[in-house]
Design brief:
Rossmann fold; 5-stranded parallel beta sheet; 31% helix
């Protein structure tokens, strides 16, 4: 039963009348015993109850122990979403090992850099085909390979999954030393590193649990919620907002075993009886356009959560075509333990279109001095660091229970990011209104300056996203000798015609200041824009593409004046 918002909150309060500090393992073990017969995980034709999952976690902890993994060991995971990945999360937490999840789509050089920079001595990977060069990793003691081909052989450094699993059978539970410190390091999560080497964000067990409980409470999740998570668990979004938040309510995580295309996602929502889906905007757009859902197809679905940096039409279409009532968005970053602000189901109807919610309230898991909020926040001048008044735009600074302890082996970055009072400079721009709603306005590093005027691509995206003729838009700034920099907008129009282009031109002139109007509009399929493996746009790659297209266009066709030019 879904229940009202009040009933859901009451159920949570009855389950958790006071906050208990736990590790990821101890919290999972407690809840696995409370919800033992409930379904915990669905993956293709495989399904596990909480009790069955607990048994798998214990066996994998024994297998890891047999390989020499102990408290403080750093273990890199290079795996796609799967039951084994989920079970390893809690198995490593039981031992007190530090998990270092690695994006499967990174280059070989980047993977090797992360393994070395994080001091990993153990590696568990999908297959040898995805393996880094072991000779470049002198600290590596053991490599567990999930899938081994018949033509391949595991020897020396490597061990196959079956042998790894079997060796766990010889270990008795009393032989395993279990981590008891909730303040211990649980994860080193590497940021995408768009302009420099990836940075390893250190997060504790306590921070991850408080953040996920705050999500569960803010979203008012019902007991037994079934959530489809078509995004990778090595990213903080799927990890905290998906997997960890569900454990608090004995929920079910539904993982995809195929590419997240529209019709596949629709069929999975139906067959799995999902109540909820969390995803990035491109997955939602594909679902709405390719799957063509209708509410009668999805009687169990009542909630959805996707990022707000998407065209305005997606919000209304999501509600109408999916039949959902609880629409959530939020703002966050790995360094703050996932979401900092989040939209409650009780928020005003159209608030998701224009803001990213209010500071996440975790109730008993939050700071009593802050009435249950996890973090203190302030908006500061990006240049001076001086705190600004309410309603003014600037850089967001955070301090509190879920902020990272720092970057691993990153003394210089830590010095640049933290002040003496423990405030963390996010590098993100935005403002809070009088009701406490936060509006994200882009990365400080993505701002560009034309003729001395600062322009926020995020702001322009928001304005253009409300244009009726535009399906998707992404704006970047590029170098341009005459003006210093100019704006280039990638446009995916509903239809590309002379009439549509004139209407878009008129819309730009009506809704933007002259210096904010992009100099070039590039017509392009949004499905082909460069993205991370999680579906987020890569501004750095988009800037390179924009620079190349503008340079090629001007060399071949030339351009005069400051009129809007379509490519």
């Amino acid at each position: 039963m879904i229940g009202t918002s009040e009933e859901r909150l009451r159920d949570l309060q009855q389950l958790y009348p006071r906050w208990q500090e736990d590790t990821l393992w101890t919290r999972f073990e407690k809840n696995a015993r409370v919800f033992k017969d409930r379904e915990f995980l669905v993956y293709g034709q495989r399904a596990y109850t909480y009790q069955q999952a607990l048994e798998c976690v214990n066996r994998l902890a024994a297998s890891c122990h047999a390989q020499g993994i102990r408290e403080g060991s750093h273990v890199a995971l290079m795996l796609y979403n799967s039951p084994e990945y989920v079970f390893l999360i809690f198995a490593l937490a039981k031992l007190g090992a530090v998990k270092v999840p690695i994006n499967m789509k990174l280059s070989q050089e980047e993977k090797e850099y992360i393994i070395k920079q994080s001091d990993c001595e153990y590696l568990i990977l999908h297959s040898l085909e995805k393996s880094p060069e072991f000779e470049h990793l002198p600290k590596l003691k053991r490599c567990v390979v999930r899938f081994v081909r018949e033509t391949e052989a595991c020897s020396g450094l490597c061990i196959g999954w079956e042998a790894f699993w079997e060796e766990g059978g010889s270990i008795r539970d009393y032989e395993i030393s279990v981590l008891k410190n909730p303040q211990a390091l649980a994860d080193i999560l590497y940021t995408s590193g768009s302009t420099m080497r990836p940075k390893g964000v250190m997060l504790t067990h306590d921070a991850l649990l408080r953040s996920s409980f705050g999500t569960c409470r803010t979203r008012m999740m019902e007991i037994g919620r079934r959530m489809l998570v078509p995004i990778p668990l090595y990213h903080i979004f799927g990890y905290v907002e998906g997997l960890l938040s569900l454990i608090w309510v004995g929920g079910t995580i539904i993982l995809t075993d195929q590419k997240a295309e529209g019709s596949y996602i629709l069929n999975l929502l139906q067959s799995s009886r999902a109540n909820d889906i969390i995803c990035v905007p491109i997955v939602m757009i594909h679902l709405l356009e390719q799957g063509k859902p209708s509410p009668d197809q999805l009687p169990h679905l009542h909630a959805a959560y996707w990022a707000s940096t998407c065209p305005e039409w997606v919000w209304d279409a999501g509600k109408e075509q999916l039949g959902i009532t609880d629409v959530t968005t939020g703002y966050g970053m790995t360094e703050c333990g996932s979401t900092t602000t989040m939209m409650s189901p009780l928020a005003p109807k159209d608030a998701v279109k224009f803001s990213q919610g209010t500071c996440k309230n975790a109730g008993i898991a939050g700071n009593e001095r802050l009435d249950g909020k996890l973090l203190e926040v302030k908006i500061c001048d990006p240049g001076t660091g001086e705190e600004l008044s309410l309603g003014e735009s600037g850089e967001l600074w955070c301090r509190g229970l879920t902020v990272t302890k720092g970057y691993y082996h990153g003394s210089e970055q830590n010095q640049d990011s933290f002040d003496k009072e423990g405030w963390f400079a996010t590098g993100d721009l935005g403002c809070f209104d009088s009701q406490g709603y936060f509006t994200f306005q882009g990365r400080k590093s993505d701002m560009y300056k034309i003729n001395g005027e600062n322009v926020s691509p995020q702001f322009v995206n928001g304005v253009l996203g409300r244009c009726p003729q535009i399906k998707a838009v992404e704006m970047v700034g590029i170098s341009y000798g005459k003006y210093g920099e100019i704006g280039v907008a990638f446009i995916d129009p509903l239809e590309d015609s002379r009439m549509a282009r004139r209407q878009i031109d008129d819309y730009l002139r009506k809704h933007l200041a002259e210096f904010q109007i992009p100099s070039y509009l590039i017509v392009s399929d949004s499905g082909k824009w460069p993205r991370t493996s999680c579906g987020k746009i890569q501004p750095s790659a988009l800037r390179v593409l924009a620079q190349d297209k503008v340079t090629h266009f001007e060399n071949s066709c030339g351009k005069t004046g400051k009129e809007i030019t379509w490519i």
